[in-house]
Amino acid sequence: MTVTSQRVVTTRSARANAHIGRHAQTIAIAVVLVVLLIFFAFSADRFATTGNLLNLLRQIAPTLVVATAMTFVISTSGIDLSVGSTVALSGSLLAIVLQHGWNPTLALVAILALGALIGFVNGWFSSYQNIPPFIVTLAMLSIMRGTALRATEGYSTPIDGDLWIVQIGQGRIAGVPVPAILAVVVALVGWLVLTRTPFGRYVIGLGSNGESLRRTGVNTRKVGLTVYVLTGLAAAVAGVLIATRLSSGSSNAGSGFELEVITAVVLGGTSLFGGRASMLGTILGALTLGVIANGLVLLHVSPFYVQIVQGGILLLAIFANSKVWAKFGAIRK
């Protein structure tokens, strides 16, 4: 082999290693997902059936929708703990206004606008008033949950099954659940925005070095505000999906939802410290959590263990995020 050929091989090998290094955690979660699919397919009789897999996609749709938006927030080194409460408030108010005779289209627009407004409040306090996002969104978590409880008096509010809006949660197109289709579209748009637009680069830049980004003339506060508006809007969409799927709005909906969403994002390789994100990883993370929950239920494991497993996965994901993959990245450099 000539010297030139050796250099070409070495260069290609270095590029391959660098590529693998950049996507190591995404590759790892993909492998875990495949292993879980194989395990449950052989251990749970109904897991690999078409009906169950479609049901699985419908169940994880709200998580994937919000996780897509949460990827942007966490990429800026922020956090939004209020998404679960926003889900509950959105679904509850949707059911209430429909029961009062509102036009379904008007009700849908109003609920989505409410979600965006909640996100705006979170973003304004976090980005323009420099209050830590953890504190802001924790306060909003309490406010929104309390508002939902007050509005419903703690009871579930039914939604008329004859209204067209119910098809958002229960309908199918070519046999595929509408929530699953909507979630895939949202995730695809999120991936395109994050990887193919200036806004996506600004989001990553804000998380890695916000001051440098600001000195280039980018309005970093506006970028920070926007990602929270997107998350609030996504949480409202999730609330609509859950309420219309169940044909009722409940103030107890979305309990622990923020844990599931954050776990999906971090598990997929997005850094809690900002500056690194993987939308594909987020999708795989949401699928992994959905497969675990679905598989455990089919194996007749108590559903109470699902939260225990999710908490353990989150802890392991944070450990890998801050230790294992950080060291891997240092080696690549």
Keywords:
single chain; mainly alpha; ABC transporter involved in vitamin B12 uptake, BtuC; two-stranded antiparallel ribbon; 2% strand; globular; disordered C terminus; transmembrane
Concise summary:
The chain has 333 residues and is mostly helical.
Number of strands: 4
Number of domains: 1
**Which architecture does the CATH hierarchy give at level 2?**
Orthogonal Bundle
Straight-line N-to-C gap = 28 Å
Low-pLDDT stretches are: 328-333
Beta-strand residue percentage: under 5%
CATH level-3 fold name = ABC transporter involved in vitamin B12 uptake, BtuC
The multimeric state of the shown protein is: single chain
Along the chain, the helix and strand elements come as: HHHHHHEHEEHHHEHHH
Largest pleated sheet:
2 strands, antiparallel
Secondary structural class: mainly alpha
Organism: Microbispora siamensis
Subcellular location: Cell membrane
Keywords: Cell membrane, Membrane, Transmembrane, Transmembrane helix
Membrane topology: Multi-pass membrane protein
Topology (elements, then pairings):
Elements: H1 3-22, H2 24-43, H3 50-75, H4 83-99, H5 104-128, H6 133-152, E1 157-158, H7 167-170, E2 172-173, E3 176-177, H8 178-196, H9 198-215, H10 220-246, E4 248-249, H11 257-267, H12 279-298, H13 304-332
Commentary on this structure:
The chain crosses the membrane at residues 24-44, 81-98, 105-125, 173-194, 223-243, 277-298, 304-326. This is Ribose ABC transporter permease. The structure is a single chain. The protein has 333 residues and is mostly helical. Helix content is 77%, strand content 2%. The protein contains 13 helices and 4 strands. The strands form 2 sheets. It has a two-stranded antiparallel ribbon. A hairpin with a 2-residue loop joins strand 2 (172-173) and strand 3. Helix 4 runs parallel beside helix 6 (133-152), helix 5 packs antiparallel against helix 10 (220-246) and helix 9 (198-215) runs antiparallel to helix 10. The longest helix is centred in the C-terminal third of the chain and has 29 residues, at 304-332. The radius of gyration is 21 Å and the shape is globular. The two termini are 28 Å apart.
